[in-house]
From TrEMBL:
The active site is at D36 (proton acceptor), H64 (proton donor), K167. Belongs to the adenylosuccinate synthetase family. It comes from Carassius auratus. The gene is LOC113117614. Residues 1-21 are annotated as: Disordered. NCBIfam families: PRK01117.1 (NF002223), purA (TIGR00184). This is Adenylosuccinate synthetase isozyme 1.
Length: 450
């Protein structure tokens, strides 16, 4: 078929684009610790000035809190930009989608006043589907780990690991399969269930009822489903647009770079943005890392600066450190600059958002982990092996506390000098500018530094 152009025309058009039009850049927000750093809040802040907000990885293991006009929303699969009426929200191919979970989340947020979401939500046809039996298997594997190894991973039991495993083993089903012939889809689901039950005889699956529900969900999402690669291509190369990417989970939970095996199953670092949306690395613009002014972790695994004492308890209670997705208490400890440096090595942060500074307001002195030592010697890298990481000795610097309420501070000069000193110390140590400092839950409690 003729396109009415010679191949040379085509080549010169492509050449022109490469030279003159690399397209819009995307701004990325990523967790720099073990999750729950306040990504939702940072995304909400930037979403008010964005045209598109994208999720590129993870699933409803994420729990992102946004507080607007004293109303608190928690988002799991929906991009936090969904409350911004001017913004299109996009769920990319790298995300794993549990459709009952998605609709439960939508219903809950509609009750809180969310309107018109169906005009603003786009779902990639290449995203993989999380089935109820993936979630059941997630639970079963945790029971098995406890029985065999005496400990679990402490997953959210949202089926994330089993779904990504299915994807990697090429037996997964995607949104595009659900949009196509339903009887073919049903056969593939039944085959998958059979495969699972032969491997895990204890796994109980009501496949017929799950398929019945999925048939209904298929029609509800059909108007929202697009070719995700083309959607992103148009967003990047169409009219000037501000595109934001909302990372889920965090660097230390990344499947490659996190504290393996106590991690999630996706790339929560910057590479996951390209593979999870189908965009070139040259279109990545600013990469903002989000970190609390201290450290928390949900679930099992090494945590060198953890404080199993009164300090840890104070951070937990003052910070209301309870998981948004599972309601579990978060483990708490001092800020760890080794992990922030490590996250920066991987992500190349342009700037940092330092949240929850206000939680430190009452402390006499504040410690910051600045280096790890093994056998008395400083190590310049972040240890890969968990047994080694469990044993590192943390070298701390102690800074004076400011013992002043910072929650009403709205600009740099409102902060007490000792709090300013703490922020500068962190900034100098990571070598990345701190662009925002959080002193409370709501939108206006974010001090912008530049
Ligand atoms: P995410 O998963 O990274 O989006 O973070 P979560 O929403 O799971 O957890 C962050 C928690 O800290 C939420 O309850 C936020 O409302 C709260 N939060 C965020 N920033 C601040 C801040 O600067 N100060 C205080 N006090 N709370 C904050
Ligand atoms: P947000 O986006 C905190 C943790 C779980 C568990 C491990 C594996 O809100 O920051 P999974 O269910 O993913 O297989 O669990 O990862 N985890 C998180 N912890 N915040 C998150 O997301 C998390 N997502 C996963 O607690 O230890
Ligand atoms: Mg969270």
């Amino acid at each position: 078929m003729s396109l009415g152009r010679s191949p040379n025309d085509h080549r010169s058009a492509a050449g022109k684009r490469a030279r003159n039009d690399s397209g819009n850049k995307v701004t990325v927000v990523l967790g720099a610790q073990w999750g729950d750093e306040g990504k939702g809040k940072v995304v909400d802040l930037l979403a008010t000035e964005s045209d598109v907000v994208c999720r590129c990885q993870g699933g409803n293991n994420a729990g992102h809190t946004v507080v607007v006009d004293e109303k608190e929303y928690d988002f799991h699969l929906l991009p936090s930009g969904i409350i911004s009426t001017k913004c299109t929200s996009f769920i990319g191919n790298g995300v794993v989608i549990h459709l009952p979970g998605l609709f439960e989340e939508i219903d809950k947020n509609e009750k809180k006043g969310l309107k018109g979401w169906d005009k603003r939500l786009i779902i990639s046809d290449r995203a993989h589907i999380v089935f109820d039996f993936h979630q059941a298997l997630d639970g079963l594997l945790e029971v098995q780990r406890q029985a065999q190894e005496g400990q679990t991973i402490g997953t959210t039991k949202k089926g994330i690991g089993p779904t990504y495993a299915c994807k990697a083993s090429r037996t997964g089903l995607r949104i595009c399969d659900l949009m196509a012939d339903f009887s073919e889809f049903s056969t593939r689901v039944k085959n998958l269930v059979q495969q699972y039950q032969s491997m895990y005889p204890a796994l109980k699956v009501d496949v017929e009822s799950e398929l019945k529900k999925l048939k209904d969900y298929a029609e509800r999402i059909r108007p929202l489903v697009r070719d995700g690669v083309y959607f992103m291509y148009e967003a990047i190369h169409g009219s000037p647009k501000r595109i934001l990417v909302e990372g889920a989970n965090a660097a230390l939970l990344d499947i490659d770079f996190g504290t393996y095996p106590f991690v999630t199953s996706s790339n929560c670092t910057v590479g996951g943005v390209c593979t999870g949306l189908g965009i070139p690395p040259s279109n990545i613009g600013d990469v903002y890392g989000v970190s609390k002014a201290y450290t928390t972790r949900v679930g099992i695994g090494a945590f060198p600066t953890e404080q199993l004492n009164a300090v840890g308890e104070l951070l937990q209670t003052r910070g209301h450190e309870v998981g948004v997705t599972t309601g579990r208490k978060r483990r708490c400890g001092w800020l760890d600059l080794v992990i922030l440096n490590y996250a920066h090595m991987i992500n190349g942060f342009t700037a940092i958002a330092l949240t929850k500074l206000d939680i430190l307001d009452v402390l006499e002195e504040i410690k910051v982990g600045v280096a790890y030592k093994i056998n008395g010697k400083r190590v310049p890298y972040f240890p890969a092996n968990m047994e080694v990481l469990q044993k590192v000795e943390v070298e701390y610097e102690t800074l004076p506390g400011w013992k002043t309420d910072t929650s009403a501070a709205r600009k740099w000069s409102d902060l007490p000098p000792k709090a300013q000193n703490y922020i500068r110390f962190v900034e100098n140590h990571i070598g990345v500018p701190i662009k925002w400092v959080g002193v409370g839950k709501s939108r206006e409690c974010m001090i912008q530094m530049f």
